[in-house]
Amino acid sequence: MAKAKKERKGNSENVYSKKAKFNAFSSSRPAKKINPFEVHINKEKFNILGRTCKHDKGLPGISRAKAVQKRKRTLGEEFMQKNKSNEFKDRRIGSNSEVINDELLNARFVAEKMSMFKKSSRFNLNDDEVLTHRGQTLEEIEQFHDNRSDDDMEDEDVLDANFTKAAHFGGEDSQQDRKAAIEEMIAETKLRKAQSAKEKDEIFELTKKLDSNYKDLIPLVGKFNKSEDIVKNKPDDYDRALREMVFEPRGAVSDRLVSEEELAKLEKERLIKLENARLARMRGVENTNEKQNHRSADDLDDGYLVGSDGEENGILAYDLNGESLTNNHSEPTPEDENKTDALDNRESDEEISENDSETENDDDEDDLSDLKDPDIESESEELSSNECQQAKTVSNAVGSEPRNKVIKLPFTIEMPSSYEELKKLLSKYSADEQGILVERIIKYNHPKIEPKNKDKISKLFSFLLQYVHDLFASASIKDVNNSFLVINKLNPFLYDLMHLDPEMTSTCIVDVIQQKYSEYKKHEKLYPSLDTLVFFKIVSNMYTTSDYRHYVVTPCYIFMSHILSKARVRTRQDIAMGLFLVTLVLEYSHSSQRFLPAALNFLLGVIYLSIPKRAIEKLKTVPPFMSTGPFNKILAMNNDTNEKLMEAEDESLLKAEDFVTVTISLDFKIRALNAALILTKDAIEGVSENIGSNYLAETFVPMMERINLDSYPQYIKSSFEKTMGTLSAVAGKPLKKLMPPEKKPKALRLLEPRIEKVYDDKRRPKISKAKEEKVKLIHKIRRETKGAVREIRRDTEFLQTIRINQQIQSDRERKEKVKRIYMEASVQQGELNELSRQKKKK
Hints:
This protein has about 850 residues and is an all-alpha fold.
């Protein structure tokens, strides 16, 4: 049986190959090779010798595709024409033509234009005719103004009894008296109407002139009111207590008080959820199983604040300055809030009153006289000098701005229209004052106040980046410290601006990094200037650096790796910049614990430069550090020690002037080695959990052992011992070798024979020929019925798919229409609100 089956399979394959050859020869193009995984083999129950089966192999995918196409041509067309008795006929010019050219299109266009000029009915007003009245169109007239009317009835137009008697009844005289009376009446009426129209014209012109000059009168009225002496009573204790109660937190009556246990449980669940999300982002895993809550179209998110990670952080609340209260990491107590508010009010009153007294006769842009509140001013006058001094002392203790001198800064600042305007504004002030100015610009032009301010905020972000670039590009040895102070003050506001428009600000940062990288690629062997490195620090302060891939952070990783692996180290400035980059790399990878080989190689190179070497001595090192040359021991101590440096007890690290200084001093050698030792210890501890961390630590040990500690102060020796202890612990860690998984042991062969029962003797009862034919027909009917049911089921599935697609398309169109309606309604509501605000201003 096995041999016959093999021969049958061979025959079928030969037949199939013959068909393929025939198709290949019959067609002009080569035969397509069939994928063996798409071929389905139909097994037969009985193998009959000498019979060739035509259906032993099949292609289910091709057959299914053909069936779908056939249903689209037949069943799909019938379904689309279901319940439709009309038909579309193309009656355009040249509809029967197979070729559509320009002449045909021009003829259609002319016919369409001619049909527009034909008026179907004399009562049809939906045409292009412009209806006018007295030389004005209806659109110009329907402005809902209270215009003059000539149809107004007056008392003088009423006919008297004498005229009625003479005109209608003939009177006592002849017909000539009647005609004269009518003419006299007409003349008097025309004269009266002319006088009345003249008076109305004069009144209308005066009213119109008064309306146009109304806006010019408003400032005059305001000035008259300000010049008047307003006498108010001084506030008593009740008034002070009432104003202080405004700043106290209020709770809703319907809110249920939450117990401390429930608060702790909710906070724990929130922290767990945030940590899981952070770890998932770090590994690059996207959670697609998270169920999103349904949000209706009219949901305005009132009362909820959605954070950057997409979760609801709680109730949205704001203080009196428009700042969000939910962004604070530590919530102050009500007592602290009252104390801080009271101190701020007193200090602001003092500052405003001093500014007003100094600039009383000045007509300056920064005049703060309009900002004074009479109630608060009168209250501040009652404070004694001791209380004001005490308020200043407490305010400085809690970290607020120093109030010992009056800072003449504008409170309301418009958004600068250009970068030069912003630079001119900030360059006149110190670092602290520049931070205050930027904060006030953001508050005064915040998008929550007016939506169109979002573009201004985005423009301010790019201006600040350009300002930071120019600040560090032109920084000298004297100005570099101030530049770092300025960037320290601007960092919080850059972070706030980034969250106001994340997409635009991220694109702006990436554009800056790409531009800096293209400039660096022109001279790969040289370190970039400080105005490039400062943007790496800005990125670490603004974005999360623990994600597996990040739109902004990942390009910075690559950029720093190229600098550390290709730029040569020759000067003090190069070493300082390299250590700064290594510090940023460790800051970036603190949470994710990934390592950058170029950073570890740079630390090893700094230690290599600190080793005294003879002229013929060579140590193994990795580029960009060279084993030979004049720069291979620029940090080594050559018996030129200083007693003051040797006796120094305070640990000193790198300074700001190291970034702009070229000459290497004795003090810098000590500080550079100390920074390298500390960074090496942190870097090895960060990668200690990796499998091959012992290989990384082993390369540092022989270099560390060659350092001559006799020429260094005591704190260098302490740092050396700590770093050496960490390196020894990691280097001595045994390497865990990779082992294949243990295989399940193979079972022994059983000695008992395997017996299978085979039933080949199938005996059927003998039946007549007619009954046998009947049985065959029944079998055929059942087989055809089964096939018909299968086809009906597939047809039903196909029709259901068409219905679902139609329903989806209908829902999509409905949603688009609803969205458009809501959008138009929102625009209309915005215009209505704008009109109401303008009316209130008037």
